[in-house]
Amino acid sequence: MQVSEIGLDSPLLDVVYDELLVPNFPDHELLTPASLRAGLKAGVLWISAVVRDGRPDGIAIAEWSPRSRVLLLAYMAVRRDLRSSGIGRTLMAEIHTGWQDRVHPLLTLAEVEHPAAHTPDGEHGDQSARLRFYARHGARVLDVPYFQPSLRPGAPRVPGMVLVLLATAPELADADVLPSAPVREYMTEYFEENEGTVPDDPATTALFAAMPPGGIPLLPIDDVAALPCTRDVTPDV
């Protein structure tokens, strides 16, 4: 399988959104089409895809923060009838090679649903299987009570998420504790862009408190019971 990039002017861009993102993610976890296009235009977002017979069968979407040098795997999706066919493995190889060569991130992260807080279903997949997939590729979890901020006005935050480390710059390859500064800077940027500010509600305060100057411990991804799980993330009104 080969991986290609789907850019702003690609006729496949709408197909990616309508046939891969919408069926695989709840609406409140999705960027809007306008935000997707804006990120592509600004060069801080790109789409890697496995395309066969003119149809994207799987995609991985990157969001890059030059300020913090953190790269986020924002979305990975494979057509339902093609899951477990090697497409995800091909995309992960691209994340560990092509994405790293492209921007040389300090950290490459992903947001993954915690199995204790989300129920598997035919639409959005099996959270435990997803964690096992990332475990096979050497991922670990940051020991922070993570949740996804609201992505747009009126959209709820997403509780019960774990923040997964997929790759690091060479100087951090053997680290068991990550430096907090780039993660704090990335999360500050994330909240400011999506919620307008870094609020002082309990869930957000606890998240940032778990990023002390001494660093953020990494947890084995396969010990699900030990992974932090935040359920009440309602912002203060």
What is the class in the CATH system? Alpha Beta
Q: How large a portion of the residues is in β-strands, by DSSP E?
A: 15-25%
List SSEs in N-to-C order. EHHEEEHHEHEEEHHE
> Overall mean pLDDT score?
92
Structural domain tally = 1
Percent helix range: 25-40%
Query: Regions with pLDDT < 50 over 5+ consecutive residues?
Result: none
| CATH H level, superfamily name | Gcn5-related N-acetyltransferase (GNAT)
Structural write-up:
With 237 residues, the chain is an alpha+beta fold. The chain has one domain: Gcn5-related N-acetyltransferase (GNAT) (Aminopeptidase), CATH 3.40.630.30. 30% of the residues lie in helices and 24% in strands. It contains seven helices and nine strands; from the N terminus they run βααβββααβαβββααβ. The protein has helices spanning 13-24, 33-42, 87-96, 98-103, 127-136, 180-195, 202-209; strands at 3-5, 45-52, 55-65, 70-78, 107-113, 140-142, 161-168, 177-178, 216-220. It has a nine-stranded mixed sheet with strand order 1-2-3-4-5-7-6-9-8, with helices on both faces. A hairpin with a 2-residue loop joins strand 2 and strand 3 (55-65). The longest helix is centred in the last third of the chain and has 16 residues, at 180-195. The model has no long low-confidence stretch (mean pLDDT 92).
